[in-house]
Amino acid sequence: MGALLFALSLAAQADTRASAVDAGARAPDAAARARDAARAPDAAVRAARAPDAAAGTSDTAVQGSEAAGPVCEAAASAPASALPGFAIARVRTRAPVVALTFDACATMKQDNGFDRAIFDILKRERIPVTVFPTGRWVETHPAEARELAAQNWVEFGNHSYSHARMTRIPRRKAVEQIERTEAIIGNLGRKSVAFRPPFGAWNRAVVRLAARQQLPTVEWDVISGDAGGRIPASRTIAVVLAQARPGSILIFHINGRAPHTKEALPDIIRGLRDKGLGFVSVSTLLQEPDAQPASARPAPFGYRPLRHGKQRTAEGDVDAHPPS
Ligand SMILES: [Zn+2]
């Protein structure tokens, strides 16, 4: 993981102050570390490393021409092979920390918004977070994007340009989705620490494209179910507090499409702290000394929409992500 950590540290250097604000005490003993290191990859990881049969034609199409272009040149500075070949759902770690993530999705047709109440809660509680905007969201919310970029407790991830289903578009378009947004985030004086594919739709080709931008592909293992507002705050609180564990990555939305999140967040923050869990950014989580990334379940078409009462715990098993 050395090269991965190096790449991540480069990516995260603008955000070092966002790390471990609320990490709490952690000192895994040597025996436990050795035990963790000896642990074989679980079935999900093995599945992700196996040929992605389900990816079918789109995988082939995306892989079709990996010969030239700036993407390959970028690989020279940090070998893409150093990053996991799968989308990360969480990390295995003994560190008692979780990462809260907030997607800011917008498409060409739908700008969506910015949930300032969520921003205010996070700022007040001094919670380091990772925000994954689409490039389109930044373009349609320039003032809010600059405000986010001005916060030392916020780090950025790349959520594509127009919320494209990355596995279903030509490779050239997929590269453009990532690069265009990276340039837009760069104009904010930031660099992404990870790529989060819209809808959770990923295959190995998508992961490789992101890796060539030195971006690990990061999904989630705890689904707040906040998008669309169909899940009441009480349910979100219960699910999140029941499922979060050390190394978890939690997904929420800050684009105005999750009306109950501001209501649920204070209880979630309090509840996680009561469980002895602190908060770190995604880049900090991935750099925990004993961190072992765990694969999300392969989902070349994306995950099904979350339905009330149908929530499951498996990494990436279902998705709260709406179409926009
Ligand atoms: Zn999204």
Commentary on this structure:
This protein has one domain (2-24, 43-295): TIM Barrel. The chain contains 13 helices and eight strands. It has helices spanning 2-11, 30-38, 43-49, 56-63, 70-75, 116-125, 135-140, 142-149, 171-186, 204-211, 233-243, 261-274, 282-286; strands spanning 88-92, 97-104, 129-133, 154-156, 222-223, 249-253, 278-279, 292-295. The strands form two sheets. Strands 2, 3, 4, 5, 6 and 7 form a six-stranded parallel beta sheet that branches. Strands 1-8 form a two-stranded antiparallel sheet. The protein binds zinc ion. Zinc ion binds next to loops.
Largest sheet: 6 strands, parallel
The CATH homologous superfamily corresponds to Glycoside hydrolase/deacetylase
Mind telling me the C-alpha Rg? 18 Å
Helix content: 25-40%
Shape assignment? globular
Strand residues, percent: 5-15%
Multimer state: single chain
| Helix-strand sequence | HHHHHEEHEHHEHHEHEHEHE
